[in-house]
Amino acid sequence: MSDNKKMTDEEFSQMITLLSRFADTEMDQFESWKFESEYGEIYVNISIHAEEDGSEYTDVTKAIKK
Fold first, then answer.
1. d(Cα 49, Cα 2) in Å, to the nearest integer?
2. Within 13 Å and on the Cβ side, how many CA atoms surround 29?
3. What's the rounded Cα separation, in Å, for the pair 37 and 65?
4. How far is CA 1 from CA 31, 47, 56, 66, in A?
């Protein structure tokens, strides 16, 4: 992906902050979404439970702005 298409650190932080807010205020146990992109369909799964032990996940807590 070219650098001019990449998200800025601020945009990434805003996305994670809004997802955190959504999880705290709207989500019950999980959400499953899909949308079209220039690469085809994109699938997003958000859950309060890890698929396995959670060690494969990247911790983005520091990107959340309070």
1. 34
2. 1
3. 27
4. 27, 28, 23, 30
Specify the DSSP class assigned to residue 48: S
pLDDT at 11: 97
Cβ–Cβ under 8 Å, residues 46 and 57 = no
- pTM, two decimal places: 0.82
* Consecutive H or E run containing 40: strand 40-47
Q: Give the integer Cα–Cα distance in Å for 66 and 3.
A: 28
Structure tokens at 10: 């601020």
Say if residue 1's pLDDT is above 60: no
Model confidence pLDDT, tens digit, residues 38-61: 999 999 999 999 888 888 999 999
